[in-house]
Design a protein that fits this description.
Helix content: 25-40%
Number of domains: 1
Strand content: 15-25%
CATH architecture: 3-Layer(aba) Sandwich
Radius of gyration: 17 Å
Number of strands: 9
Distance between the termini: 35 Å
CATH superfamily: SPOUT methyltransferase, trefoil knot domain
CATH class: Alpha Beta
Order of helices and strands: EHEHEHEHEHEHEEE
Strand order of the largest sheet: 3-2-1-5-4-6
Number of helices: 6
Largest sheet: 6 strands, parallel
C-alpha cells in the first residue's frame, strides 16, 4: 500500500510543531511521504533528519498545490481520504479501503476548503468531536495497519542507525549496534 499525507493549510508560524508531529507519526506508522501546501524548510529538515537516523525512506515535499496533487493522485488511480470529525466512522470506512489502494490522507491545519469534502473519496472521522489531527492520523493509520495484519509497534527499519530495545523499566537505545541506556 502506498500512503501519502497531504497537509493542507500549514501556517509556518503557528503549525510547525504539529505538522512535524504529523510527519513523524505518519512515518512511524508506515506512510511513505508528506506533501505540504506551504513552505517550511524546518519541518522538512526535522522529519528528514529523523528518517536518516531512525531509518526508512519518508520524504517531505513543500509548496504543493493541493488541488493539483489530488487531481493527479486520482488520475493515477489513488483514493483520497479526508480525516475530519464530520466524516463517516472509521469502522464504516475501513471496509472500503483495500490492500492495493494508493491512499492520500488529507489532514487540515486551518479550516479546509469546503470543496475538499466533495472531492474526497471518503471523509473519515475517528470521532465526531473536536480532537487533535495528530491523534486522528495515528488512530487511522494504526487501524489500517491492523486491518492489513501489520503491528504498528513492531515495524522495523533495518537501515536505521538507532533502534530501541523495549524495556519495562528504564530505556535502552542501540546506536550503530552499540547499546546505550
Amino acid at each position: 500500500m502506498n500512503i501519502t499525507i497531504l497537509r493542507i493549510g500549514h501556517r509556518q508560524e503557528r503549525d510547525a510543531r504539529v505538522t512535524t508531529h504529523i510527519g513523524l507519526t505518519a512515518r512511524a506508522l508506515g506512510a511513505d511521504s508528506m506533501l505540504l501546501t506551504g513552505s517550511d524548510k524546518h519541518v522538512k529538515e526535522s522529519i528528514e533528519k529523523v528518517t536518516k537516523c531512525w531509518g526508512g525512506n519518508f520524504i517531505v515535499h513543500n509548496n504543493i498545490d493541493w488541488k493539483r496533487a489530488i487531481v493527479q493522485w486520482k488520475k493515477r488511480g489513488g483514493k483520497i481520504i479526508h480525516l475530519t470529525m464530520y466524516g463517516i466512522s472509521i469502522q464504516e470506512a475501513l471496509p472500503r479501503i483495500h490492500r492495493n489502494d494508493k491512499l492520500m490522507i488529507v489532514v487540515g491545519a486551518e479550516k479546509v476548503p469546503s470543496e475538499l469534502y466533495q472531492i474526497a473519496d471518503l471523509n473519515v472521522a475517528v470521532g465526531n468531536q473536536p480532537h487533535s489531527e495528530i491523534a486522528a492520523l495515528a488512530i487511522f493509520l494504526d487501524r489500517l495497519n491492523i486491518k492489513q495484519g501489520i503491528d504498528s509497534f513492531t515495524h522495523k527499519y533495518p537501515d536505521g542507525k538507532y533502534k530501541i530495545i523495549p524495556q519495562a523499566h528504564g530505556k535502552m537505545v542501540i546506536k550503530d549496534e552499540i547499546a546505550y541506556d
